[in-house]
Amino acid sequence: MDVAPSEREEFLARLPAADVQALMACGTRHTWPPGAVVFVEGERSDRVVVVLSGRVKISSKSEGEAEVVLAFRGSGTLLGELSAIDQRPRSATVTAVDKVDGLVVDASAFWDFLAGHPAASLLLLRTLAGRLRDSDRKRVEFGTHDAVGRVARRLIELADRFGEPGPDGIRIGLRFTQEELAGWSGSSREAVVKALRRLRARGCVQTKRMTVVITDLDLLRRYSR
Length: 225
Hints:
By secondary structure, the protein is α+β, with helices and mostly antiparallel strands. The protein is 44% helix and 25% strand. The protein has helices at 17-26, 81-86, 107-116, 118-144, 147-162, 178-185, 189-201, 217-224; strands at 28-32, 37-39, 47-53, 56-61, 67-73, 78-79, 93-96, 100-106, 163-166, 169-172, 205-208, 211-214. It starts with 16 loop residues before the first helix and ends with a helix.
């Protein structure tokens, strides 16, 4: 299933122009190199970050300390809003996948911004609702789909967010490992390897080191149902 446009994380792109200018005036710019940690799970923080360019990985640790990928997000994403709302520790770690340019806004300034810009407050509610729906959908997937179906869905989601059309198909313009895909799809690495092998054999995808090209999106959707 493709990610519905209403559930994408492009918070900044969906703000009215006047609200964007007001938000930019509330914060300061900061750059994180690839691999740098933006937020750490469990820490207390009084700031939010808007991704202006680049991509981030959102992950959490299982009880066995294994990394579980929750999402990949791109430009326009709002990060850290839950901790700003409930003032509780961070629920996940955010890591820069590539160079990330972001706007850092103190929580108090962010709340003042929302109070003065109702459209932004409504957009925040819609963003949170979209994330909740996505979380609920993934819970259903884990109970009703095999590893091939879950991997297919994650590849479709990546193509929807970061896909780059080319002569051979849709190249996923985001480098990720099989371990990350395993954690994200709720599968073992071995199950992901088998799933990708099956999808390659059926002509759905081509894979190279940390690169995936979707060669038949319609067929891949069939495996995701």
